[in-house]
Amino acid sequence: MNLPKIAWPARTTLALMLCTAGVACEPYLHAGDAPTVIAAPTIDNPKAQGASQTAIFSGGCFWGVQGVFEHVKGVQKVVSGYAGGDRAHAEYDMVSSGTTGHAESVQISFDPAQVSYGELLQVFFSVAHDPTQLNRQGPDSGTQYRSAIFYVDDTQRKIAQAYIAQLDHAHAFAHNIVTVVDVNGGFYPAEDYHQDFLIHNPSYPYIVYNDLPKIENLKRLFPKTYREQPVTVNGRS
């Protein structure tokens, strides 16, 4: 049974009402998945001084993924948006139909001297989402919630593909990783009300149940990577 497609402010409210009324809560609500402790990538780019770099990840609702990476040291800015489709269809209501090719995504700007691309991938696979769920994350289902990595250069492609192979070979997860590695064909920022949603709405039920546990998992599993004060979409802490 899938949650009916409704406007985003009411989505979790309806889920809570259904659960309170005695309807089975799964798949309406899904607490932040228990993190999976995984090894760092054996193939990675070395940390070095240089210009800001970009990573683009898709791992379900962009609220939580953005919130996680805003707490990672070395990250300068995280923008919620859409990737995988064209500019004409990069709009929330259209993307939510699951027919545009877009996935809810985040674009991460990071300092390569402080954090490597591989370290971002480790956080992405371990605490930001479950890479074994096909076309869904927690309470959200559809291709717009797929697990994907949109690489911006060949180095990122090689690191991402090698890391997925490494994790699958090691049986790091109970099931195989379904994350798609694809070239970045364009990233389009989401509407303003989606930006920094977790920071601005920490008591929103969807955030409390699905996303705040991810922040705690990041803090617990990656204490050297975690920073208490998140960076905002404007690049300010």
Question: How does this structure look, described?
Answer:
This protein has one domain: 2-Layer Sandwich (Peptide Methionine Sulfoxide Reductase, Chain A). The protein starts with 7 loop residues before the first helix and ends in a 16-residue tail after the last helix. 41% of the residues are buried. Strand 4 and strand 5 form a beta hairpin. It is α+β, with helices and mostly antiparallel strands. Helices cover 31% and strands 17% of the residues. The strands form 2 sheets. A 6-stranded mixed sheet has the order 7-6-1-3-2-8, covered by helices on one side. A two-stranded antiparallel ribbon has the order 4-5.
Topology:
Elements: H1 8-20, E1 53-59, H2 62-69, E2 75-83, H3 92-95, E3 103-110, H4 117-128, E4 136-137, E5 140-141, E6 147-151, H5 154-169, E7 180-183, E8 187-189, H6 197-200, H7 205-221
Parallel strand pairs: 6-7
Antiparallel strand pairs: 1-3, 1-6, 2-3, 2-8, 4-5
Helix pairs in contact: 2-4, 2-7
Keywords:
single chain, 237 residues, alpha+beta, Peptide Methionine Sulfoxide Reductase, Chain A, two-stranded antiparallel sheet, 7 helices, 31% helix, 17% strand
